[in-house]
Amino acid sequence: MTEDIQARAERLRQDIRRFCRDLPADLRSKSQRHQVLDKDDYLQWMRLLQAQGWAVGHWPREHGGLAWSPLERFVFEDELARHGCPWVIPFGVKYVGPVIYAFGSAAQQQRFLPKIVNNEEFWAQGYSEPEAGSDLAALRTTAVRDGDHYIVNGQKVWTTYAHWADWLFCLVRTGREARPQDSISFLLIDMKSPGVTVKEIRTMDGYHHVNEVWLEDVRVPVANLVGEEGGGWTYAKYLLKNERTAGASIGMAWHALHRLRELAQEQGPDGGRPIDSPLLSNRIGSLELRYLALEKAAYRAVGAMMDGTENGGEASLIKLRGTELYQDIAESLVDLLGAAGIAYDPAALHSAGLPPLGPDDAGGIIKDHFYNRAATVFGGSSEIQRNIIAKAVLGL
Amino acid sequence: MTEDIQARAERLRQDIRRFCRDLPADLRSKSQRHQVLDKDDYLQWMRLLQAQGWAVGHWPREHGGLAWSPLERFVFEDELARHGCPWVIPFGVKYVGPVIYAFGSAAQQQRFLPKIVNNEEFWAQGYSEPEAGSDLAALRTTAVRDGDHYIVNGQKVWTTYAHWADWLFCLVRTGREARPQDSISFLLIDMKSPGVTVKEIRTMDGYHHVNEVWLEDVRVPVANLVGEEGGGWTYAKYLLKNERTAGASIGMAWHALHRLRELAQEQGPDGGRPIDSPLLSNRIGSLELRYLALEKAAYRAVGAMMDGTENGGEASLIKLRGTELYQDIAESLVDLLGAAGIAYDPAALHSAGLPPLGPDDAGGIIKDHFYNRAATVFGGSSEIQRNIIAKAVLGL
Amino acid sequence: MSTDHDTISMLRDAVQRYTNDHYGFLDRAGVLGRAPGFSPRAWRDYADFGWLALRLPEDDGGIDADAAAIGVLMEAAGRRLLLEPLLASAVLGTGLLLRTGSAAQRQAWLPQLADGSVKLAFAHQDDANAPCVWRDGLLDGVKTGVLHGDVADRVIVAARNPAGDAVLCMVAAGDLAASSYRLVDGRGAANLRFDGARAEMLGQPGQPAQDAIALALDEAAVALCAEAYGVIASLVAISGAYLKMRKQFGKPIGTNQALQHRMVDMYLLQEESRALVNAAQQVLALPRAERERVVSGARAYVGAAVRRVANEAVQMHGGLGITEELDVSHYFRRAMTIDSLFGGRDLHMARFTAHSLTADQPGEQPCVPM
Amino acid sequence: MSTDHDTISMLRDAVQRYTNDHYGFLDRAGVLGRAPGFSPRAWRDYADFGWLALRLPEDDGGIDADAAAIGVLMEAAGRRLLLEPLLASAVLGTGLLLRTGSAAQRQAWLPQLADGSVKLAFAHQDDANAPCVWRDGLLDGVKTGVLHGDVADRVIVAARNPAGDAVLCMVAAGDLAASSYRLVDGRGAANLRFDGARAEMLGQPGQPAQDAIALALDEAAVALCAEAYGVIASLVAISGAYLKMRKQFGKPIGTNQALQHRMVDMYLLQEESRALVNAAQQVLALPRAERERVVSGARAYVGAAVRRVANEAVQMHGGLGITEELDVSHYFRRAMTIDSLFGGRDLHMARFTAHSLTADQPGEQPCVPM
Q1: Which stretches make up the Acyl-CoA dehydrogenase/oxidase C-terminal domain (chains C, D) (predicted)?
Q2: In this predicted structure, what is the pLDDT of residue B240?
């Protein structure tokens, strides 16, 4: 890794810090308290990033990006998350955009990329199905050719923010090849098409993040097929590779650890501070040490990606350690809240009201604790990540 | 469980306590310091137990036992181990004896049982082979009929105290049935037979506990076949069932925990006591809590055995938790010894000399830490125990 | 006095039958989150079956139930995630009234507790800025996090008199200001404010009240252990069934050895928890030091176990595990409240650690601990 | 000044080639447990290759090696379980002499350190009953657990002068009484008694000596981390190969998913350890507080990791794992000494915990930490 690349990444980090200091007050307050953000909040947020050019900073310049190195991309995600910023919704800028500029037709690139760059269209991801979670190759949604259209039938599940989406990128089965992977294709589906139904799945934090998407005789123009019929598996793998750096999980862990220590240092009504308990102090220290190990390993992994010395396990390592650490920090935060850690008012999180007990962000902390149990499942479960390392790296 | 049985078990425990107070000084001192015992020490120990009738207390009265309930048997093993007593060598009294009185011929019972009861013959167990560890059914040692004899060829491994043994009970293959289990037979082999070679395996504590036993054209009288040809698998399973209660692992854990707390309460040269460190205190407390959970669960398991409400997982539960807890206590003890926990003099353990650093039992503590790493392997590894519960209890 | 085996067995059958038939996950979903946050019909049924009177002496229509009998009810509360104020009213409130109430107070309230027409709650957690002080029959101060304080008809409050002695007193719901909310598991709770509220004293101030409070909190801990065991047993059963049913890569996910071994670890925690629950139930009548060691040990171990089992169960169910629609997420949330209510796990671990199990010589240890 | 990449790369190749060819497990077995407890031939070879002079300035025939270069040697010590006094003499002793010795002392000893004719040890652990006191060139007291104190030609001793200031001094082996023994990993150690032993002072008493000692102990911690990483990397490789080779129930045991996932956890620890070793090597020149946080963090994490990996490796090898004949048990014992020498894990964990990682606002954190 050259010093030049490092210097650029450092400059980016400084820029992000300034940017975070200057966030609009309402967005800042909501995200600091882990309130629930609605679609307008997210659109505002994505437009702020876009104004800096950052939302697609990792894209090539010819498509409007800044041609970031993996290191800059990592720093970008890490630093935003450290400040407790909202999620950088990835479906357009991180997932489907790169697939379109890498494999889409010129017409598709012209039609879709500018609206992703400018946040004019909201995307969702149609991958998982009820019977095809970790084994995507088992997916059953079919797309049958009928003249200039495909007729799509099937059901997707865990579709984040499908209820806000204008478009769905979707893996479908277009044939019956011997290897199930070989008959998967990558389709772009207009969510306003007749036959598309979005059904809410409420999660245990009491909110509506994810959905079922039912596709019943949905007519999709053949022009919305990305690349070749049967090429979907290749594009999906490209997408996953592109998803890799996952700096956000590290930044999120830092943010939560910071809050944990802050809360532990607050004086209680009896004058004592929780941190003065050697056991709690050791618990926090142990989490901080896991953080340190993760951070150092993650930068090594990014370095390997840039040097081309990857062994294929880097992304899994970061995801495993990052998500498991974050969950443990979240559990510690809830425990530290004591009675306030089991008092929950979802409505207050929507209306920016106060939680029934504890500090202003108590409700947000509990919400994150709930929803982030999914972090070790979504995007390839911890079990799958371990299988990947066992096979790809250890040859077992 | 009736109150009568409980009362008998309580009386037995009191008797054992008196017995332990009155142990001969040399044996007491050696075992308190976890010195290495040689064959004469063990013979002396087994004879002391025999004088009480306890070594075969679990045998039926007609063969010289006391017809103990599972509870008494458990209490016997637990209480001896609590006092740090030597190992009750199980190969004769616990393993082969019951097989002989349950399945052996009258002649075999007359020939072998009295010498087991009176500790006149030392037994070893020929089960494991280099290619048949946890999967005994894969064993390769063959016994081919030749007139009134079997000709035995093969190799056994991990044979504890084979170098002291007069007799070996041995699983051998006597045919080629479709199910490999169906051609296994149970043979009694005189260790003085030509063709029997014992080869030492030194373990990482620096001692000689276990051996390889090579069997080359060993002639074994057919009269030494226990039960039927091909019945060995049944007898082996009976033996394992008979081996079940495993109270010793719980008593050993108690003994080590007691020593751990004692050491932690000793004043150091700077006047401080290790136990005053909240982290160490919590570490010990956590081990004590695991002990409490194990003890309560073990008594429930013994109760289930006596009520006939076993689910088949009880023995595995006790072995898993007991051995893993003991290993963690042993590691804590070594850690607590600090610099003395890595200073090791195996010769001193033989000669009853002092360890190079630390308290008198420092060397013994380190030795036990080493050798007890085998506790989660020998007698069915922890992995096998978890497989058993997964299958027998959880139906997975 | 211990409840006999047959009584417990019959109670267990009855509780299981009723909750299986009338407290399925969908029945419960219909109750959850709507006022009053529990099922008044189930509450009446519990009263009709005599479950709210379990602790009462036989003369008052009860069976003088011991902790094991109460545990049957609490285990069912964990297995089926019952929302009714069993712990707050039938266990804690009733127990405090029985142990500290005057004859007149017992006569006044026991029948109404037995028939379910009065529900109690126990307020023990002071707001540090407004500790509760009882003076001449009037109570001032604030209590936080009162389980079922939102629906209790009367609240038993741990307070101090002007001399600083501990007192127990009882306040009618109409005489206090309640700020109600839901716990993460959907049950109701409230912060309570007393502004010169009429409060009748229960029992004697000073050490007697302190002892009664300590015992009540230990009873709560033991009851929570039984409830936790119910949650664990349900999650082990549900997860085991899911591993057999759910297929991935062409075979049930339960054929994956890594998941099998983790299921085994959950099962081991279940078995240990059950044994510890039984042990803790048997020490409630012992002197405080002996009682606390086993109760706090059980509470610390079982509290950690139920959290761990809940984490694993959610993980094994994949995306489904975090949905509101599936029971697993509700058990997860119940595990959080169990591990936190009436004094969290750290407190009990510290109390257990302070009592050494192994300080004595072997010869001084109790004999067969069954 | 940091050693350049090519130099480190060449050193790594040379060390790997030599230890592969001349320090196999059987070669080592021939040395182990016999006097002098290490291989004098290997020691001469190290000297010939210049490895004992790595830390020396270029003018003295060295390469002024930084911690990363030293780490190459220490990692090999872990990978091949080298028995020679590399850490005691070539790293610690040489470092202390370089940093605190007078020109005359350096001139006297550096050539003999470089050619291997003098081996040093560092005695820092007082016997509390007989602390070491230096007075007018003579030393009294006892030091315990001195790594390679059995074979050192000279021992550098941390002592106090009569004013109570820290001092560093050097004693010849002939002027002290050594009681030698083996550590669990087979390396030699000794308790040392000084009875008015002639002892020449190194450097300045007081804060300078204290700083030199603290830095030396941090250097030892970092060197041990590199050694631990070598042990971990070897055990991961050995265990992975065994899982592929060993068959049970008709298939390699490495096809069992539970073992696969445990191997993955070992691998994760390996990767994190490597990253922490690198990080710790880069902070040795920083001010003490910053240095200690990362060094102690790395030492605590890697110490726990090497113990855990060793436990798992032994378990995965079944009965073989605890035999003297198999290398795995030797790695297990080395893991114990690594985790204990020069201040155990608890000490470092406490030191790390005392330095918060997250107390600052994000904007005050260092930037890209590479």
Answers
A1: 215-348
A2: 78
Residue A248 predicted with pLDDT over 90:
no
- pLDDT score recorded for residue C370: 44
Phi then psi for D232, rounded to 5 degrees?
A: -60, -45
Q: What are the pLDDT digits (tens) for B317-326?
A: 999 999 999 9
Write the pLDDT tens digit of every residue in A303-358: 998 888 999 999 999 999 999 999 999 999 999 999 999 999 888 888 878 888 99
CATH of domain A123-229: 2.40.110.10
- A339 contacts C125? CB cut-off 8 A: yes
C201 Cβ partners below 8 Å, 6+ apart? C134, C137, C167, C168, C169
Q: Mean pLDDT across chain D, nearest whole number?
A: 94
Does position A277 have pLDDT exceeding 80, yes or no? yes
Residue D360 vs residues A262, A277, C70, D17, D365: alpha-carbon distances, Å = 10, 21, 51, 46, 7
The residue of A276, A277, A279 whose CB has the most chain B CBs within 10 angstroms, and thus the best one to mutate to test that interface, is A279
Closest CA to D344 of B175, C123, B279, A30: B279
Domain spanning D210-357: CATH 3.40.190.80: no
pLDDT at C366 over 60: no
Contact B13 C349 (CB under 8 A): no
Given this structure, which CATH class describes domain B3-88? mainly alpha
Residue B200 CB coordination number (10 Å): 14
**Hey, how many other C-beta atoms are within 10 angstroms of the C-beta on C1?**
7
Domain map of chain B by residue range?
3-88, 123-229, 244-392
D225, D277 contact by CB (below 8 A)? yes
Do D358 and A254 count as a contact with CB atoms less than 8 A apart? yes
Q: Where in the sequence of chain D do the CATH 1.10.540.10 domains occur? A: 5-114
Q: Which of D228, D282, D220, D223 shows the shortest CA–CA distance to D96?
A: D220
Chains with ≥3 CB–CB distances under 8 Å to B: A, C, D
Note the residue count of chain B: 396
Is this prediction's ipTM beyond 0.90? yes
Cβ count within 10 A of residue D33: 12
Residues of B in contact with C362 (CB under 8 A): 17, 20, 79, 82-83, 254-255, 258
For B244-392, the fitting CATH number among 1.20.1290.10, 1.10.1670.10, 1.20.140.10, 3.40.50.300 is: 1.20.140.10
pLDDT at D366: 46
CATH architecture assignment, domain C120-201 = Beta Barrel (2.40)
| Residue A390 Cα, gap to closest chain D Cα (Å) | 6
What is the residue-averaged pLDDT of chain C?
94
Separation between Cα atoms, residue C70 and residue C90, nearest integer Å: 9
Chain region(s) in chain C for CATH 2.40.110.10: 120-201
D5-114 has which fold?
Answer: Butyryl-Coa Dehydrogenase, subunit A; domain 1 (1.10.540)
Report how far residue A219's alpha carbon sits from residue A145's, in angstroms, rounded to the nearest whole number: 10
